[in-house]
Design brief:
- With 169 residues, the protein is an alpha+beta fold.
- The protein is built from four helices and nine strands, in the order αββββαβαβββαβ.
- It has a single domain, classed as Pnp Oxidase, Chain A (Roll).
- Bound molecules: flavin mononucleotide (FMN).
- Flavin mononucleotide binds next to strand 2, strand 4, helix 2 and helix 3.
C-alpha cells in the first residue's frame, strides 16, 4: 500500500476538490453515515500514506467519526454523479438514513469495517491515526474570517490509507 495509492492520486484530488467525494463513517454502535466532502488531501505523514478529511462540528458525521476508528472515501470521477453528491452534501444523517433512500448503494469495505459507495470509481479505506480540532487561537485571521464566520470549525482526521483500489477491482 505504501505507493499503490499514488497511481490514483492526481485523478482523486482533481475530482475531490472540484466535484466532491463520499466520506463514509461508522461508530462502535454500528451507526453508519455518508456525507459529501471536498476539503481534504492525500499525502505522506509519519512515513505512511494518509488521507486527511475536514469535518465541521455541526455535521452528523462529526458525531459519528468522533467515536470511530476507520473511514472510507469513495471518489466518483464522472460528472454524472453530481446529483448523488448534492444529495449526500445537503441532507443530514441526523434525520434520515441516506443509504436507505435509493440514491446511493453501500458496499462492504474490503479491508475496513466501514462501507464504501458503489456509485464511485476510486476507493480509499482508512484507519484513523490522529485527529485535532481547529484551534482559532493559532489560526491565521484571514482563514478564520473566510472559512469560519459562523464559528463552525472543522476537526481534521488523519486516516492511514490501508487499502485503495478502482471500483471495478
Ligand atoms: C460539494 C460539497 C462538498 C462538501 N465538503 C464538505 C467538507 O469537506 N467538510 C464538511 O464538513 N462539509 C462539507 N460539505 C457539507 C456536508 O456534506 C453537508 O453539510 C452534509 O449534509 C452533512 O451531512 P451529515 O449531517 O449527515 O454529516 C460539502 C457539501 C458539498 C455539496
Amino acid at each position: 500500500m505504501a505507493t499503490e495509492f499514488m497511481k490514483y492520486l492526481d485523478k482523486s484530488l482533481k475530482y475531490l476538490h472540484r466535484q466532491g467525494a463520499f466520506l463514509t463513517v461508522a461508530d462502535d454502535q454500528g451507526r453508519e453515515n455518508v456525507m459529501t466532502i471536498s476539503w481534504g488531501n492525500i499525502g505522506f505523514e509519519w512515513g505512511r500514506p494518509i488521507f486527511t478529511v475536514l469535518v465541521r462540528q455541526s455535521r452528523f458525521t462529526h458525531e459519528i467519526i468522533e467515536n470511530a476508528k476507520e473511514f472510507t472515501v469513495s471518489v466518483p470521477t464522472r460528472a454524472a454523479l453530481r446529483d448523488q453528491l448534492a444529495f449526500a452534501g445537503t441532507k443530514s444523517g441526523r434525520f434520515l438514513d441516506k443509504f436507505a433512500q435509493g440514491v446511493l448503494t453501500k458496499v462492504p469495505g474490503r479491508t475496513v469495517q466501514v462501507s464504501t459507495v458503489k456509485e464511485s470509481d476510486i476507493v480509499y479505506e482508512c484507519r484513523i491515526v490522529y485527529h485535532h480540532a481547529i484551534d482559532p487561537n493559532i489560526l491565521a485571521k484571514d482563514v478564520d474570517q473566510t472559512s469560519y464566520m459562523d464559528g463552525d470549525y472543522h476537526t481534521i482526521y488523519y486516516g492511514e490509507i490501508v487499502d485503495c483500489y478502482p471500483r471495478e477491482a
